[in-house]
Fold each of these.
Amino acid sequence: MALHVYSVYMPARPTSERIARAARRLLDKEGVEAVTMRRVAAAVDITAMAVYRHYADRKALLNALADEGFRELAERLAAEHRAGSVRASSDIEQRLTRVLDVNLSFALENPRLFELMFLTPREGARQYPRDFAAGKSPTANLFAELVRDGVASGYFRETDVWAIVFETGALWQGLMMLYLGGRVSMSAIRFRAYCHEAIGRYMRGIRK
């Protein structure tokens, strides 16, 4: 009886995807300075010139990494919203806190990606107020929706919604930057609670 061995064909990942994955590994392990075209090429086992066929330059590669990070964060926020935990509570501040927690968890789990997304100057980064008011920030849109709900329900006074979104973002991102820079002597759990307290103090300032 003949013995037949069957193999399963697994299509190879496109080179552009392999480049992006290698760049992300370097970023996560060593930070943005480690993401060079030469090092990425070596990780993928291709020539540096081959990387340029997929990404025009290092800036384009870093932009792609940042864009992917924003997609990941937006997907987490959307999943939280779909799960109902953001919509279920009638307490506006509790709903805002849940959105804050998604952001904090993402930053704590991906500190170097967070730095690239929010703290590293790069071409094409969304700018306040124009891009925010135009709804071009998927990671800020849900927070804006909740602030609008708070205004409509009378929980918050009439206010500039996008200013509130931008300022609260600056608050938690600034605190996160200091935490990641070793300037905050708290455990991750205590730091998260402190961020809740800080945002809570800010939100009480716009209560009716």
Amino acid sequence: MSECLELPRPARLMSTAAVNAAESFGLPVAGYALAASLAGRDAGLWAMLGVIWITAVIRKLATGSVPSLVMISLVVLTVQTVAAIATGNLLIFLVHFPIANLGLCIVFAWTARRESPIAARLAAEVIGLRCPPVHEPQMNRFFRHVTVLWAGVFGLLAVSLGVLLAIIPVVTYVPVWAATTVVVIAAGIGASVLWLRWMLRRHGLGLRFAAAAAK
């Protein structure tokens, strides 16, 4: 059993991932949709920003820390909201898509060589992945490399979305942005999973479901 990485049992895994997704994306989007329907786009943007900041503060007070996914959303949404409201220009508003990805690229690259790379924190927080202490050095190297991979993913998105914004009509940019983002992110996830499988085989590690860690 000590030669296995551990994930929470499926029900717990799904609930943990769902809570993280709701805190980071679902609640802010719901806040935007509700406020925008009542008072317009700017009100929606402020509501979205308010929801993510309130979530971060509550998490900090309740647990002493802010989940990495919430922190990423907070930084991205703050930049996007300020840029959108300050300019009021549709083209400038759309620029925040490549800018946000550039910011994520910088964040991932900055943490890649630190003691706790952001990919490792996300794996622990979002899906509850646990590693036996004896294998932490190998896993830490893996997560540093995967963090670099995701810095490259977000860098590619930043460049490609910037180029697309310059060459295609503004009215078609949002659907093209959505499709490009889905394809590139899916490719990054696929590469990360395959890399993890290769690493596990190389070090003779397994993967099993286990009870959630006691807090």
